[in-house]
Amino acid sequence: MKRFLMVCFVLMVAQSAFALDIVYPKKNNVVINAKSSFLIGSADPKKELTVNGVKVDVHPSGGFAYVVPLNVGKNTFTIISGKEKLIYDITKPAPAASGKPAAPAAISEYENLKYAIVVNENSPLRSTAVSSGINRIAHLQKNMPLVLDGEKGSFYRVILGSMKTGWIAKSDVKISDSGESLAELKGYETLDTPEFNIYVFHLNTMVPFELAEGNPFVVKLFNVENNPENTYELKIPVQKLYGYSGRFSGTDFILKMRKVPPVDKTSPLRGINITIDAGHGGNESGAIGCLGNLEKNTNLEFARLLAQELSHRGANVSMTRNDDTAVGLSERVDFANEEDSMILISLHGNALPDGADPIANNGTEIYYYYNQAKPLADSILQEIVSQTGMNDHKVRQSSLALVRNTNALSILIELGYVINPSDNAKLVDKEFQKKTAEAISDGIENFLKQ
After folding, report:
1. Which segment of the chain is annotated as a signal peptide (predicted)?
2. What are phi and psi of 437, to 5 degrees?
3. Which end of the chain is more exposed for a tag (fewer CB within 10 A), N or C?
């Protein structure tokens, strides 16, 4: 009897392993305002799959993705695999009545200067009055005084010396009754530790600043009297950056620049502090793969293997999460900094919005924000592509929370597209995961050897 029940169970699993399943859209009756959407899911690859009578390719793993154009109104899609049938209704709303587009906000310049105080920690000081994109000059600390000479929409214009301005969100500051336009720099000193070169600038008040990567590395302290254009500038020769930070402690501005790490060419990772971040977790599942796999779980599988590989090669590895736990974005960055990590790698699976094509988009891409991290990203992507055969989906600069960390060389790896059947089949394959961990480790080693 037990053997009979076991045989029945095995047959049931075999029959259900390729049951027709749609993971996106998440419901069979949805509203999507886009030119197209897609049906993502799995089906028996041995059976013909059709959508409204059109044959759809099914990957040997069972995964499939199919782009569906959307017309205004209800769009009905009948998905058939063998004797299984699902019906999905996607409604595209009618376009809103076209009116005259709103005029862009104009700059209003003040007749008299205004003064403000930063009220939120790490408030972005931007080069343009736009709350996104590659336009961050610095992140300002709470209680920093600012001088304003105008506004535009939801932003105030900030005076930066006598020849430059920046922008800060109105929600990040409060207007002050009074203030000072210029600060006094009393001098600076340098300190030396085994890991860092430290520069301490003594001022009588906090001022906005900019740290410009390059050779030389440039420190700019704005609104400082007795300096050209009211801007104090220090140029520091540097060939390669391995992480830095600039913050006020009281009214002293402290710049810490990580020294070139001692690298053993035979074991480059020995002693290097690295934080591995498995994206998402807890109630944040991330994207759902064609086969129903959750991105958060796949990320964690890769992270564990990568941590194991790096540790085996001598690195000091820490993980932002080692189980299915929710961790905030700022907590992840703070954790890496507390561990004094020189490298921060966040692992993710890619997805796309409606209107895009999950078949045409595939491969691995790596994001960075600060230029210091780009050579590391380039080295890692080169190894992933050459060792695993993944499509080179480029290294890209983007303003993502995990890569806006200057203390470490911070990158985010989109390992592959979970909504692309071929990519997703690789992402859930244990051997591919192991090869990818080895490729990333090789990429880091090659970067350190340069």
Report:
1. 1-19
2. -60, -40
3. N
The pLDDT score that the predictor gives to residue 181 is: 94
316-319 and 273-278: which strand pairing? parallel
Nearest to 169 by CA among 116, 214, 219: 116
Q: Helices then strands (H, E): number in the chain?
A: 6, 28
Question: What average pLDDT does the chain have?
Answer: 95
Nearest Cα to Cα of residue 406 among 379, 368, 441: 368
| Predicted local confidence at residue 450, as pLDDT | 87
What are the structure tokens assigned to 71, written together? 């017309």
Closest CA to 149 of 163, 131, 135: 163
- 52 contact partners, CB below 8 Å, separation of at least 6: 77, 78
Q: How large is the C-alpha radius of gyration of the chain?
A: 27
- β-bridge mates for residue 155, sequence order: 152, 169
**Number of residues that this document lists for the chain:** 450
Q: How far is CA 398 from CA 323, 355, 373, 410, 428, in A?
A: 28, 21, 12, 12, 27
CA atoms within 13 A of residue 381's CA, in its CB half-sphere: 23
CA distance 351 to 40: 11
Burial label for 227, CB within 10 Å (0-12, 13-18, 19+), is: middle
